[in-house]
Amino acid sequence: MNDTTGRQRFADAAREERPDLALLCLLIAAEADPEPGEEAVDAAQIELDRLAGLLPALGRQAAPRRWAEALAELLGERCGFHGSPADYRRLESSLLTEVLRRRRGLPILLSVVWMEVARRAGAPVYGVALPGHFVVGFGDPLGGHVLADPFDGGRILSEEEAGLLVAGATGTPLAPSMFSPAEPAEIVLRVLNNIRAWAAARPERSDVQLWAVELSLLLPSHPARLRYERAELLVERGDFVAGAHEMEEYAEVIDALEPTVAETVRRQARAARAMLN
Known about the structure:
alpha+beta, 57% helix, SirB1_N, Transglutaminase-like domain-containing protein
C-alpha cells in the first residue's frame, strides 16, 4: 500500500467506534516496511486467527485463571512467544508482523498478540498499561481478574509481583487505577512512543522518528507537543520551510498558556527560515 493510502486507512481505523487494535498495529508495521503491502497485513490477521483456533474451547464462563493458563501454555510454551532485554534494542520488537514472525517483542506488542488471540477465542481479556511494563488481564477489571505477563511467557502475576514490576521500572508504588483497561488508541500511542524513543536514540534514524510522530498525530487524542517534535525533525532533515511553519502554528496553540515558550518557538522558526539564505 502506498504512503497516502496507508495513512488514511490508519486515520480512519483509529476513529472507528471500536478500533481494531491488530489492524492499527499492522498498519504501523506497514509504515516501517511498506514493501510486503496488503498481503502482510492479511497474513498476520490469518496467523492470529490460526493461533486462536489452537486454544481449547473454554467458553466465556471459564475462570479467568483458566484462560490465562491456556494462553500461556499455547503462546508461551508451545509457540515460544516471549521477550528478553535484547529485544528493547530492535525496532522489529515494536512491529506486529515481525513479532508474529520472530515470536519476540516488547511487552506491549506481546500483549497485543495475547489480547488478539484471546479475544478471537472469546476470552474476557484486556490490556493493562502498567507504568514501564504492559501486561494483560483476564476477567473483570473491577474484581476477580488475573494478570499475566506475556514478556515472561504469560507468567501469572500476583498483585505484589505487579507492584514489583512497576517499582522496578518507575520507582513508584502500584495504584489501583493502574489496573484499568487500556483503550486501543492508548495502546497504539504507547507503541508509537516506544518507536519514537528507539529512533530518538539513533539520530541516523530520524526517518523512523518522523513517521512515528506523524502517525501519532493522526490519532484522535495525542499530546500537542508532538507537533513541535515534528517541526524540529523537519528542520533537522532540511525541510526548513515546513518545519518553521509547524513551529509557528504550535506557538499559536500554546501562546495563551505559555507565552514565553511560544516566543522561544517563534525565534526557532525565524532561525529555521534564515537557514534558507
